[in-house]
Amino acid sequence: MMWVWARGCLRGFALIALLALAATLSSAQSLDSDYPSRGAILAAKKLGSIDPSSRHTLKHKQIENVLGFVTPWNPQGYDLVEKYRGKFTAVCPVWYQLKTDGDELQRYKIHGGPPKEKDAEWYQRLRESTVDESNGQVLDPVKVLPRIALEGWTTGDFQTLLNSSLEGIAFTEAITAEVVLRGYDGLMLETGAIWALREPLRLLSQRLHEETKELLVVLPPLREDTPQENQVLLQAVREMADFVDGFQVMTYDYHGPSGAPFKPGRPMPQDSPLSRDGVRTFGPNAPLSWIERNVEGFGSQLDDATPQSVFGSSVSGGAPLEKILVGLPLYGYQYALGWLNDEGAAQLITPPSSPTSLKDAIAEEQLKSRLRAEQREETRGLHPILTQAGSPISLADVRETLNGTKALVRRDEASKENFIDFIKAREDGETFTRPDGSVVPVAWYRRAYFASHGTQRARLELVERLGVGGVALWEVGQGEEWVLDAL
Ligand SMILES: *[C@@H]1O[C@H](CO)[C@@H](O)[C@H](O)[C@H]1NC(C)=O
Ligand SMILES: *[C@@H]1O[C@H](CO)[C@@H](O)[C@H](O)[C@H]1NC(C)=O
């Protein structure tokens, strides 16, 4: 059994090598290739790498809606959306909370708004059509649908809201007033209990539709290990599909901070710590197969399919596909890893590095480096195990890391996410004293997954093929121009 598995594994490696070869031969190491080189990523900003004539043109014509989230904590997102506004149909600034700390007359109270006057001017500019000065192209208005998150709500608060339609009306008025006053095109409502709010949301949507405003809601993704939650969610989506204008599915954080369960490729010795439950390793942020299964789960094509084909749920029929916006992350994850042998003993290893800068742009050199890295991993036979919770990483962080290290850009073939390995000091600043008395920081081996131009292209092609309503990017400020260019 074990031998068969190992052989399958080797065949896997050979296949990966072939795929890698095919990919490199067709496109060198440029930013839009499957393996953008370290040098190309470092130069991306400097060169203003993007062809200005395509800045406002969506490459994926079948995708009808592109929504970009923007947040005050990554404010470069505001400029990026505007610079590429022709690719966006909507923006969702993350500006609002709805709390239940109002007064006796109105318990539901909106908090937040455009943080600065210039943010208000920004969204007003987006709502009006304009002309690209460079070529006379007319740029349509971009819808502004801010996110309103229910914050600090207790179970009692939800019970009160659901208790009477008067409460539902008060809830509706608090939200609608802000949307109308500010002249937004609608809003995106987010709460972990969205499935419970059918009736208040029905009222809210009726009221918003009277004002020709839209109601979108955020949905958690379907997951293999939560069949009951999936069931409840799908049932709710099915009912809400009649009146909600769009569902934004958060298909990211698939592994999240806790990483993926470690599955040894061969039996571990019984007393090895690696044979215990709960051992974790790294994993991609948004596997393509998982995105696809979410669309199948939430989408209406299940009407004709055998129920329970997706995620162990037996509800068939969800939302019409055109109401689904697939969430695409622009950020990645980094994981601190220890490389352990079968007995669980850690071995110190050096991350694979990029070819020297002279050879960095040469496809064959890159391929050689990647193959060497894979061969070394295979020969060592060590297991990469999480030593700390993973954390999100933006493209700017990735670039900074590439600047400070010689990390080699590789790719996970299934998710099409790129990754780099590098050594970096621990965040807590812990140090150790060497025998010679010098004090040095404790550093960790890390692996960071990120979404490159090629990753986004693969995701967008999938979304296009699935025929859903569009995509929602979380979030524009964590991306960079060379990746937005994939849109
Ligand atoms: C790389 O780091 C140096 C030194 O901190 C900095 O001056 C330079 O701008 C960085 N380059 C990029 C592409 O980030
Ligand atoms: C529900 O409404 C009734 C009156 O309609 C009220 O007496 C009761 O306290 C309310 N319950 C909650 C949880 O708000």
The coarse silhouette is globular
Terminal CA distance reads 45 Å
State the strand order across the main sheet.
Answer: 1-2-7-8-9-10-13-23
User: Rg, please?
Assistant: 24 Å
Mean pLDDT across every amino acid position: 90
Category from helices, strands and their pairing: alpha/beta
Helix content: 25-40%
Bound molecules: 2-acetamido-2-deoxy-beta-D-glucopyranose
The total of helices stands at 13
The main pleated sheet reads as: 8 strands, parallel, barrel
Low-confidence stretches: 1-11, 22-26
| Fraction in beta strands | 15-25%
Number of extended strands = 23
Question: What features would you describe in this structure?
Answer:
Helix content is 34%, strand content 21%. It has helices spanning 2-26, 38-47, 76-83, 117-126, 155-163, 165-182, 198-210, 227-240, 288-298, 363-380, 395-404, 453-466, 481-484, and strands spanning 65-70, 90-99, 109-112, 130-131, 138-139, 143-144, 147-150, 186-190, 214-219, 246-249, 260-261, 280-281, 324-329, 332-340, 346-347, 383-386, 391-393, 410-412, 417-425, 431-433, 439-441, 443-450, 470-474. An eight-stranded parallel beta barrel has the order 1-2-7-8-9-10-13-23, surrounded by five helices. Strands 14, 15, 16, 17, 18, 19 and 22 form a seven-stranded antiparallel β-sheet that branches. The protein is globular. The model is unreliable at 1-11 and 22-26 (pLDDT under 50). The structure holds 2-acetamido-2-deoxy-beta-D-glucopyranose (2 copies).
